[in-house]
Amino acid sequence: MRGRINLKEITILICLSIFFFFFTGCDEVSPVSVEERIEMFLNDLSNQEYSTIRGDHIHPDAPSWDTLNSAYWPANGPWKDFPLSLNSTNVPDTSSVTVNITSSLGTSDYDFVMREEEEDVWKIYSVTGYF
């Protein structure tokens, strides 16, 4: 009669549990620095990837979250003048990040405010004068 689980079956169950935990249960978020986030944001703008910009790059607590939909980007600010080129990023403090961008209109500095969404995952909270 087979009513009990033997030591071999327990060992197999433990090994399978460990395997699934390490290979399917650990969804670790990759860190994204302030500089990386701004570069990714500008690349998506240049590639006109408007539908993903808000979710991918804007902090969910941003004061303008509701207005920053896919229709916002091609109609407002320097984001509509292509190509966009990141010249430099100065990060003395995440509440005032100076970003030098070149577009078809010329070269200008923009003040970004960044916030962590998760540990070591930075997103754009605002850009002074734009959102």
UniProtKB/TrEMBL annotation:
Tree of life domain: Bacteria
Name of the protein in its database record: DUF4878 domain-containing protein
Taxonomic source organism: Marispirochaeta aestuarii
Native organism taxonomy: Bacteria, Pseudomonadati, Spirochaetota, Spirochaetia, Spirochaetales
